[in-house]
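User: Second chain of the day. Same drill as before.
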Amino acid sequence: MVRRLIAFIKRLPRLYRALLAVLSVSVLGLMLLPGNTDSVVDGQADPVLMQDGSRIVIPLELPAAVTSVAPDADSLAETGAVVSEVKSKGVDESRMWQYEIQPGDTLTGIFEKLHLPMPDLYQVLEADESALALDDIKPGVKLLIDVDSEQLQMLQLRFSAAHKVTYTRKKDAGFEFSETRLPGVWQEYAITGEIGRSFSIDAEAQGLDSRDVYQISRLLKEKINFRRDIRKGDLFEVLISRQYVEGEETGETKVEAVRMMANRSPVSIFYYDGSYYDEKGRSLSKAFLRYPFNGNYRVSSPFNPNRHHPVTGLYRPHNGVDFAMRSGTPIVSAGDGVVTRVVNHKYAGLYVEVKHSERYTTRYLHLSKALVHKGQRVSRGQKIALSGSSGRVTGPHLHYEFRIAGRPVNAVKAAIPIAKHLEGKDRKAFDSLLKQYLARLDEALPKSDADNLVVSQRAGGSGETAQSL
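Assistant: Same format as last time:
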């Protein structure tokens, strides 16, 4: 019998024999594992596998907060902040799990790894209906999870040191949602360079992030044809601020000013109060529409931070304005921007999110059909969707949200940008800031390059055309 088995294995292709060998070693390893799930090494759970009866538990990474060794004074304060926070909520930090989202991960898969009941996930999704933060998780986002008696007690998303979202189990039922955004400290950097191959390649080589390069090219799309107008040897100058919390860079950046050559003429843009303007105070984007539709529709549910939900009976924030309208009504974008989400949510239904600038975002919920896709550029008044009754609703309507710096505001009453030119006090404040921007740009540019830039601005420059963006 053994000889026949050996002969059969020898006749298998080499790849199958290799896979069979790996499988045999894995089975042997599992058989040798101890059956006690509480086994630890040096006070830490086995980082590879733990056997629990007939199932194999793959533990997530335990955070430093679990260890009994106090962090040294020179380490970053994030772990200490986490411990302080969970203690203030009455949570035993020894139960905390920490995990960093990897490519291909899903919340369902993570819940399955922890053997948490799916109803807990649905309750978290329900609490997330007002924020939709769970739809923004991506590789690199950290999860902090508190599990007690195989039941989720707290789930925290740490997008950065400055931005976190927490879902905490309530005593009666479900989870409550809270969001923290720290202002941090912004440090300004001046980045200058010369076009050799293309703006994107040369700007990234000088230290700009690819996201910043994309933002600059998007802001200047109406002023510059990056394929035709940029010439080899032209200079560019960028003022950019990066955010830090407790000495740690959060990954959040803000482009403050840009000067460069285009079609033999200087082009510049400057950041002021959430939007970008040219040197004469003219907005680079069009005004927002007050309402994202044509016609008049009744407000069926106003903006209310403490609304009593008509379906669940719970008190949850209503971060938007509901307009009663029949399904299939055309919905338009309130302003120029880029579509950042087209998502089907269990409770919010089909929804579209448009990012208009670093400061302004709009959302359109409970749609019947989306007419745009993620990454698509849209203009003010462009039809992007059809209204509907998807998700958890009592009838067809549009839920419309307007967010400023990540925080929801009343779209009906909020002071949103409606002017194309800065005037009055805003113009004076902008002119004062403009002088500071220009002074810092001039100071950062080497004297020889500054002279070349002036000559290029007067004479229009010359030389080869650089590659496209």
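Residues 34-89, 450-469 have pLDDT under 50 and may be disordered.

User: Great, on to the next one.
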